[in-house]
Amino acid sequence: MQKGFTLIELMIVVAIIGILAAIAIPAYQDYTKRSHVSEGMTLAGGAKAAVTEYASSQGSYPTDNETAGLATSITGNAVTGVVVDAGKITVTFNDKVESGKTVVLSPISSAGGIKWSCNPAAGSTVNPKYLPSNCRS
């Protein structure tokens, strides 16, 4: 008497693995794109601090990276640039997220500080599903 799996049983297992992979790969790609957007938000963190400091000491927003006291070229693994323009911080991504798409952080002056808006209404062009949860509202 022989023992082991039949061909049909092995084919069923391979089919199940294929179905699971077809579901998991798109979810994983979304996850990696969200992590790259998070990298951009981290790089923008320094710019947010510089803009806030400049606004509190000068009473207006800086016009560019140099005025804010930042490097003129801020790049990362998935980020092609972080640019300050009249207080707004624009993070531009390469094809690891979506080539040329941006997240725009807009300053909103409030009592005693600055709040930052990064939702699509602020001018962000990155697909909203890749944005951090605080930017999707």
Describe the structure in your own words.
This protein has 137 residues and is of the alpha+beta class. The chain has a single domain, classed as Glycoprotein, Type 4 Pilin (2-Layer Sandwich), CATH 3.30.700.10. It has helices at 7-58, 65-68, and strands at 79-85, 88-93, 102-110, 113-117. The N and C termini lie far apart (65 Å).
* Gyration radius, in Å: 22 Å
Question: Largest sheet, order of strands side by side?
Answer: 1-2-3-4
- CATH topology value: Glycoprotein, Type 4 Pilin
User: What is the CATH C-level name?
Assistant: Alpha Beta
How is the main sheet built? Answer: 4 strands, antiparallel
**Cα shape:** elongated
Beta-strand content? 15-25%
Q: Uncertain runs with pLDDT below 50, 5 residues or more?
A: none
Mean pLDDT: 90
Q: How many distinct beta strands?
A: 4
* Total of domains: 1
How far apart the termini lie comes to 65 Å
Instruction: Please state the second-level CATH architecture.
Output: 2-Layer Sandwich
State the main characteristics.
137 residues, alpha+beta, Glycoprotein, Type 4 Pilin, 4 strands, elongated
Summarize, please.
The longest helix has 52 residues, at 7-58.
List the helices and strands and how they pair.
Elements: H1 7-58, H2 65-68, E1 79-85, E2 88-93, E3 102-110, E4 113-117
Antiparallel strand pairs: 1-2, 2-3, 3-4
